[in-house]
Amino acid sequence: MEQQKKKTEPERLRSLDALRGFDMFWIMGAEEIFILLGSLTGLPALQWWAGQMSHVEWHGFHAYDMIFPLFLFIAGVSFPFSAAKRMQGEDGRTSLYRHIFKRGLLLVFIGIIYNNGISFDFENMRYASVLGRIGLAWMFAALIFMHTRNWKSRVIWFWGLLFSYWLLFVLFSAPDLGDPDRYSMQGNIASYVDRLLLPGRFCCFEYGENEGLLALIPAIGTGLLGMLTGELLMTERKPMHKVLWMVVAGILMMIVGKIWDLTFPINKILWSSSFVCWVGGLSLLLLALFYLIIDIWKLRKWAFFFVVIGMNPITIYLANRIIQWHNANEFFFGGFAALFPENGRPLVLAIGYVAIGWLFLYFLYRKKIFLKV
Asked: Is the C or the N end of the chain the one with fewer CB within 10 Å?
């Protein structure tokens, strides 16, 4: 009986762990490495990539803007697999609902703590957060997934969320700052809702919140897109057919995003509907590539570096906030960096910074210590 149960459980996607680690790699200090490489080498390709290692101030897109939505997309992909396992238990559906609400609300709480919530300065506390956005968007997407019958109804929900959000911008603008541009920092309705309803301080521009309230609507779409992709990966289709579906869907999503950008600009802070399509398409293409190489072709050794990161993503995210890695980096790599020419020392220290973070995660990996929410 136990063997039969194990056979029915979905196999863990190694490509998903690797892609999650690849995503988190760029906030472990890797962006600094490539910025310095671009400056030192002067190579056009590296200089271009270095220019991608920062967030766009408002409208537009850089590769660095992918990190947040890709993580939410991956969390969505994982859900159908974890849901299938929980549903096999005695109180499967009840357990699954409990897990959905617990995880979503716990991420909101951890996000507040991350924003220095334990300072207890409630007036100046930041209540919105990256983790809060992930938790709530994933939670509501999971509830939609649970209460829809098939992938067609979920697709309708996905586009309904994106068009509803766009319609809010078409119909309304901020009435308080006198800016008629419905998509500007001052004039958009999403930032106005934050100014009206969200307590505490904002990050990281004065007119609204980076992870504000209204933009939760399209973020749910990002999570739901991941769940649709996870549902595809769980089907009995041939693996190469799954790759083809992801590639075609990814390209179409990017085309739609670029066309929509003409009227609803691609904007990470607003999490605009065009942004959801653009980064959703890129996420599909990245997952297709990782799935093809790791799970179909079985070329896995190269991905171990990223898997170590991907198995403990929340840990490294919190550790970057709490632990003074710079002190450890200077202790272990400061003398080594001093052996290099002055313009090369920052690069050595940047590599050392990433190395220390990875070794910390490798230690946890070997000890089988994983922070799961």
From this structure: N
